[in-house]
Design brief:
The structure holds two protein chains of two kinds.
Chain A: H1 18-26, H2 29-33, H3 45-48, H4 61-70, H5 78-81, H6 89-97, H7 101-109, H8 115-121, H9 144-160, E1 183-187, H10 191-202, E2 206-210, H11 219-222, H12 231-243, E3 247-249, H13 260-265, E4 268-273, E5 279-280, E6 293-295, H14 296-305, H15 308-311, E7 323-327, H16 331-342, E8 347-352, H17 363-372, E9 375-378, E10 380-387, E11 393-406, E12 412-425, E13 428-431, E14 435-436, E15 468-470, H18 473-476, H19 481-504
Parallel strand pairs in A: 1-2, 1-4, 2-3, 4-15, 6-13, 7-8, 7-13, 8-9
Antiparallel strand pairs in A: 5-14, 10-11, 11-12
Helix pairs in contact in A: 4-6, 4-9, 6-7, 6-9, 7-9, 8-9, 10-19, 14-16, 16-17
Chain B: E1 3-10, E2 15-21, H1 23-28, E3 34-38, E4 46-49, E5 52-54, E6 59-65, H2 71-76, E7 82-83, E8 85-90, E9 101-107, H3 112-123, E10 127-133, H4 143-148, E11 152-156, H5 159-172, E12 177-181, H6 184-196, E13 201-204, E14 220-223, E15 226-229, H7 230-233, E16 236-238, H8 244-251
Parallel strand pairs in B: 9-10, 9-12, 10-11, 12-13
Antiparallel strand pairs in B: 1-2, 1-7, 2-6, 3-4, 3-8, 5-6, 13-16, 14-15
Helix pairs in contact in B: 5-6, 6-8
The chains are: A alpha/beta, B alpha/beta.
Chain lengths: 509, 255
Amino acid sequence: MNAYQHPETNPLVSRDTRWREELRERMSTRERTSLPRVEMPEIPSEYRVKCNDEVNQGLSIEQAVLEARRCLDCPDPGCMKGCPVANHIPAFIKNVERRHFAEALEVLSLTTVLPAVCGRVCPQEKQCEAGCIYNKMKKPPVAIGNLERFVADFNREVSRQEGYGPVVPTVSKIASPFFGGIRIAVIGSGPSGLAFAGDMAKRGYDVTVFEALDRLGGVLKYGIPEFCLPKDVVNAEIARVAELGVKFVKNTCVGITMGFDELQEQGFKGIFIATGAGKPRFMGIPGENLPGVMTANEYLIRYNAKNTDDIYGQNVMTLRRKRVAVIGAGNTAMDAVRAALRLGAEKAMIVYRRSASEMPAREEEVRHAREEGVEFLTLHNPVEYLADENGTLCAMRLQRMELGEPDESGRRSPIEIPGAVETVDVDLVVVCVGYLPNPPEQLPDQLRSRQGKIKVDDESGKSSRPSIYAGGDIVRGAATVILAMGDGRRAAKAMSEAFEEIISNTTLG
Amino acid sequence: MVATIKKIHRHSENTAELVIADPAIARSARAGHFVMIRFSEDQPRIPFSIVDASPEDGTFTIIIHKGARLTHLINSLEVGRELPNLLGPLGQAFEVANYGTVLCIGDGEGFVPLLSVMHALRDAGCRVITVLSEFSEQNTCLQPDALKWSDDLYHSSSKERAAELIREISSREKVDMVVMTGPSDLMRLLTETARSLSIPARCILNMIMLDGVGICGICRVMVGGERKLTCIDGPTFDAYQVDFTQLLNRQRNFV
């Protein structure tokens, strides 16, 4: 089966198969559109802030099938256009509707290696679900993200439980062993690296992923907390990539532990750099180096590691503070402020210089934060952090803002209201105002932009060195998991086509 | 290949020297580099200076001190133990050149980062004068190591005495550079002394870090008005440029 290259001939994907037609005829459009969107079951907010359990509980089988019936199986699906990895969305949803859950995962696995992750952390409201036909009818779109998550979770649970028959063939490997002798190195095991590695392995290449830290997954592990994305879910998805034959090498920082030339000496013919943007940014205001001011990375790494209060010495600044302010309103900021509540904060605040409608975080994260009791100090911008007589943070000075004309990001720009500065008492400030790229050491200078990003061709991800490709946050600056995955997939396609071209142009003698 | 402990040399109940087999690190380690190690799952990742490396044997050496709750750890280590969580060499290497006469000063406990630098400076033709502060009385055991790379060795029993020694020595002979490490209050004093004598000074900072590759931001320090991360931009900085007062304020929480 050559489904990878020609999905339209794959009977699980093609819209023209008999089963798809039967399914479409089973219910009228009117019946389908009259169904209300199935709400994701959630743990009540008063309970969830006392534990680390995942807030969204996932759809049941019946809920998933019911939601799948809402999908009209459009001939020209708008949802797929909004998906950075071009998932075959109607195809997987219709497989859910006919209760072929294993096949639904098979469809997803053609295009994504992280369905359980993306079903949880993608901003669907801005992507696939924004393209859904229901929006035109002024109705809530099909819950594509929730369905994707259901398919991944259901199949993971089936293969986990013994005595449930053979393990579902989750990922189809399609390529010939022809490329098996070509070694490919991936630098970084975050979403972009995993997507690239998965696609290259499916095409038959010999892929090795190098990770600097001692655990795989990149930001999925050190950044996103358990209550949004359980670590077991990430591990299971990485295990599926490993099943494709991808090798993982931890504790290896390419550019430091081994050089790029060393990679080439070891026979790696292609390199994909996906080291992400993990270097924290600061605002450059007075007091940012006070004890009590920390980065979101420090806060979340320590939160995720749990017992770090004990092991960094007696005087270590504990994360358990009464009044916590998180600066910024992206997804990471929401994660941090919600973590603060779970660590027992009495007052957990988001401080954001624009208004609520400009917040970059996903709608769901913002809603969850509100439900849990987070205070939103929008149109406030910190200008200084103040210390008590011991030199420890005790308060922040906030400048009130108002909105002016739209700036280059298209959002209305914040403007200071002269003289409107207030002081708010606070015990801990978590700075979360963006990230800078982490380019590897020893990277040839011509590949770097001034901001430390790697310069590549937008479409292919190829750098000015033919053997080096890059994608994800190291190219974009801090963005999302799914955009990083999309880069990985496009780079894999471009790199493998480059190899195929070389081979097809080669003759003996 | 998983790194393993090849030799343990226990200097005292407080100090152990570990020789670790890891050919990749041994090959690329330079003076001033460090490694991050997690000895067991319930331990944090801890940065250790690389003291010595032998590319031929595929090994490198670190020195572990009691403190940072590592006493139990020192006692529990055995030869042959695998270290699955080891990353390095990290940081920027010390810029080695024949500077002339270099005065290397460190407090016993914090002296370890200087050893590889002294070695490299000696190899580059520098005259190395060492001032070993032993006011913590714990680390006389480092003296043989220090002696190996020193043309001259002095002792001091206090911060103030260490600063005085800079003045005394530089009045007798020309000192071209001071390289220091140890507690930040010691380094602040030594830097002021070096500045008053117009002797260039380098400091090797000793900071807590979670990842060692520029993610957590705990090891941030202001250098010449710019925010630097000790793990990727350091650990060696131009001492004149470091804001030690701010650093001391931050470090109170991480001792």
